[in-house]
Design goal:
globular, six-stranded parallel sheet, about 15% strand, eight-stranded mixed sheet, Rossmann fold
């Protein structure tokens, strides 16, 4: 490790506020993940292995998949640009911005843009770039890089955010999180409406039909891909899946691992630009970035490209949980956009092992990252390869693998001792007998020149070997089992009434929607207008941004307008609520599927603070995969899966409902 890295580690460990923030993030993320994964049992491991195979297939034949994906995307009317380097990507975006006369870019969270330094570059060209993810917006105001892939402002307390908003936005100081979120919503709403370009990343590109998939919770990803006249998607060239079935698999894994959700609030499926009057965006561009990925795919670190950017390895890593993302710096003290276990590998592979190889030493090699990874990436194995300098695939070492001299001597002594079971057992017993704890929580503080004692104590050796202790425990357990009754417990038998499949799906959908914070009203077409008007009156809603009449139940808009409700079909930021139909729904996750076209603008479900959805129970399907394969969903220029009201946990991991998208979701189902 370098002095710069050590100094950042020491500063992180001494920062009590940071320690509390990291502990809170890890505890909440890991508990939410377990809550989602445990009920799946063996199915989870089976999905991990399938996903690993899918990603391995793509990376092994990267050129072929890129060619097929490019053809499919261009066939949808999207302009595709290949960028071999970060500078080429910046030039391409410069050109698009110049042709569009852009002065303001609304940007969704994207680690690839951090990788190429996009914000600094565009601002140097006189173009204002505004981060619209709440966490990214906060750290942009502070002039800081992201501290976590999923939660960029994880290192900040609410008081820090309050001071930042006071200084940068000129508002009275407050540390009330809902108030801070409301301020961000108000300020960023103007950015969404005025920006000439919306810029986003891409979570997955579907080779089969050229679909670009983005997952977000706040709604900013939907805003930047639907409101500005030009949309630019910047995508690492490895982020592809072959088919929509494979996409369904990845969407099962990603949100469960990242945020502990069955599906993110918004899963956007973007295929083509709008071709109808008043539709937006009129142009879509995809920038496919290499920037060293081709070389990585042919290197010993190719498996790093399997990553789907869920952040699970960061949340479970004992090192990241102590030092946070900002401590991961290279030999010159420069940070990396990619941190934690996967970041230590990717940084060395993308930016050079000479500068970033030191990050791989910030690991216990405990294997927790591999266990948490939803695509079963062998991170411990790759960390060892980086440490050994095996980065590019060349025979000679690419990084300096030699440890400090004292540590090397100790390792040679340990190797000699460990090669004999008798010597190892004797050494362990002697160390356990004669050791005396002289540091709190540990045995002895190792001399700092070995590199070990900067951040951890050497544990006190056990007085008895593990094998002896294990055998004694095993014998005790066996004795308890022998004395227990051999009769297995029997579950009580219950008679269950037969439930029709459609009725079961409807009930499950209602249950899942309620768990997401949505409201459900079961009705029939005859009393739907009455119930809808009552809801509008109770919530003091008098203006609606609605789908056109042909895509809603007959007579609904006439009944509303006769009652004095103002209805518009063009984007109106002042509309009290949005009224839409539903193309399909997913019982397993409580999700609504909306498709865009002439007369069915997706902004109706996004701009207003309340979203009212009218659902025919006949279009409720059981699974995500069924819905993704429906012809009307596959053929739509754009579609979105809505799973509850918009939300964020970017400030102190405190869940807040209603960010850029609606805070209320009301479903009327007949």
């Amino acid at each position: 490790m370098t002095d710069a890295f050590h100094s950042h580690i020491r500063a992180a460990l001494a920062n009590d506020a940071l320690q509390k923030a990291l502990d809170g993030n890890a505890e909440k993320r890991l508990s939410a993940r377990i809550l989602m994964i445990d009920p799946l049992g063996a199915e989870w491991e089976e999905m991990r292995q399938r996903a690993h195979a899918v990603r391995a297939e793509v990376i092994a034949h990267l050129d072929d998949y890129i060619s097929a994906f490019t053809r499919a995307v261009e066939g949808n009317g999207v302009h595709v640009h290949r960028a071999e380097t970060s500078s080429q990507a910046l030039e391409i975006i410069d050109q698009i911005a110049g042709e569009s006369g852009a002065k303001l870019v609304a940007k969704s969270k994207s680690m690839v843009t951090e990788e190429i330094g996009l914000n600094r570059h565009l601002e140097a060209q006189g173009i204002r770039v505004v981060e619209t993810d709440l966490g990214e917006y906060i750290i942009q105001l502070r002039g800081e890089p992201p501290a976590h892939i999923i939660t960029p402002a994880v290192h900040l307390r609410r008081q820090d955010v309050g001071v930042t908003f006071q200084e940068k936005l000129g508002i009275p100081y407050t540390d009330d999180i809902p108030t801070l979120v409301a301020v961000a919503r108000q300020r960023l709403r103007e950015v969404f409406l005025q920006a000439e370009i919306g810029l986003s990343g891409v979570n997955f590109g579907v080779v089969q039909d050229g679909t670009l998939c983005l997952v977000t919770n706040e709604g900013n990803g939907r805003m930047v891909t639907t409101l500005p006249p030009v949309h630019i998607a910047l995508m690492g060239m490895e982020r592809m899946v072959p088919t929509r079935r494979d996409l369904a698999l990845m969407l099962h894994l990603l949100p469960r691992s990242a945020t502990g959700q069955k599906l993110s609030v918004y899963t956007s499926l973007v295929r083509s630009p709008a071709t109808w009057a008043q539709g937006s965006p009129r142009q879509r561009h995809l920038v496919l970035l290499d920037n060293g990925r081709s070389k990585i795919s042919a290197s010993p670190l190719a498996e790093a490209l399997y990553c789907i950017r869920c952040g699970a390895c960061l949340n479970t890593c004992p090192i990241f949980r102590e030092i946070g993302g900002h401590a991961y710096v290279n030999t010159r003290g420069e940070g990396s956009p990619y941190t934690g276990p996967i970041g230590a590998v990717l940084s060395a592979a993308l930016f050079g092992a000479e500068g970033y190889g030191n990050l791989a030493r910030a690991s216990t090699l405990c294997g927790a990252c591999k266990d948490a990874c939803p695509v079963d990436i062998d991170l411990p194995g790759m960390l060892l390869r980086v440490r050994a300098g095996k980065v590019s695939g060349a025979e000679q070492a690419q990084a300096e693998p030699n440890p400090p001299a004292v540590l090397a001597l100790g390792l040679r002594a340990f190797t000699w001792m460990a090669m004999s079971s008798q010597r190892f057992a004797l050494a362990q017993r002697m160390a356990g007998i004669f050791s005396r704890p002289i540091a709190p929580g540990g045995w002895i503080k190792t001399p700092r020149f070995t590199g070990w004692g900067y951040s951890k104590d050497f544990p006190r050796p056990a007085r008895r070997p593990l094998r002896d202790r294990f055998n004694n425990q095993a014998q005790a357990i066996a004795q308890q089992a022998d004395s227990a009754s051999a009769t297995p417990d029997r579950l009580p038998e219950h008679e269950t009434a037969e439930v029709q499949p459609q009725e079961a799906s409807l009930k499950r959908f209602e249950t899942e929607l309620a768990a997401l914070g949505g409201s459900f009203t079961l009705c029939n077409l005859a009393n739907l207008p009455h119930l809808l008007l009552a809801f509008l009156e109770d919530n003091k809603i008098d203006t609606l941004l609605a789908w056109e009449a042909a895509y809603l139940p007959p007579g609904i808009l006439d009944a509303l307008e006769s009652a004095g409700v103002s209805v518009t079909h063009t984007p109106d930021p002042n509309a009290s609520a949005g009224l839409t139909g539903v193309t399909a729904a997913i019982a397993a996750s409580g999700s609504l599927v909306l498709t865009e076209g002439s007369g069915t603008a997706l902004v109706a479900s996004l701009l207003p603070g309340t979203h009212i959805a009218l659902l025919d129970s006949k279009v409720i399907y059981d699974t995500l995969e069924e819905v993704l394969l429906l012809p009307e969903v596959q053929d739509a220029p754009a579609a979105v899966l809505v799973s509850g009201p918009s939300r964020t946990a970017d400030i102190e991991m405190s869940l807040t409902i209603g960010v850029h998208g609606p805070g209320t979701l009301q479903v009327f189902c007949w």
